[in-house]
Amino acid sequence: MAVLQTKHLTLSPCCRDDCTDFIALERDPEVMRFLNGGHTVDRDRVDPNATFLMPSGTEPYVWTARRTGNGAFVGWFCLWPESDTLAELGYRLRRMDWGQGLASEGASALVHWGFETGGYDRIVATTMAVNQASRRVMEKIGMTYARTTPTESSDPIPGREHGEVWYELTRSGWTGE
Prior knowledge:
- There is one protein chain.
- The protein is of the alpha+beta class.
- It has a single domain, classed as Aminopeptidase (3-Layer(aba) Sandwich), CATH 3.40.630.30.
- It is 23% helix and 28% strand.
- The chain is built from five helices and eight strands.
- It has helices spanning 19-26, 33-36, 102-116, 132-140, 171-175; strands at residues 4-5, 9-13, 62-67, 73-81, 86-93, 122-128, 144-149, 164-170.
- Strands 1-2-3-4-5-6-8-7 form an eight-stranded mixed beta sheet, with helices on both faces.
- The longest helix is centred in the middle third of the chain and has 15 residues, at 102-116.
- The two termini are 26 Å apart.
- The relative contact order is 0.16.
- The model has no long low-confidence stretch (mean pLDDT 85).
- This is N-acetyltransferase.
């Protein structure tokens, strides 16, 4: 993993010092709306079967995003290897940083890294079908809709009945070949 620089962001491999910022994201009900039904995460009582990533700063493949100009925490991005040739993109940003193109900027940097350095042939990302903002990010970085899968949850999240959408980008699609 390398430090990645974009116009507005510096993405660095996460470290233990980032944990407080990561936890603050999980305590914002709007940030957790499509992950945990808007319920904040209490790490002392977290469901061990939770399907979403809760980084603590020790995870490989998780980058902490900070503003290049002032070092302010923005969120985190991950490019989690599913195999030698496939990785899953994920991201979570502070609400105050939404709508500024930062999710697309950071995600694009990770996709670039994944194809150029990570050696992946395909990168996928998922979100709830009703999460239009996340779907727009995926589309902006060149990912295309692949499929919708049904979701099951013991804690029904509004919109869950519409399923989860999968987007993907192949190396050849990324290079335009």
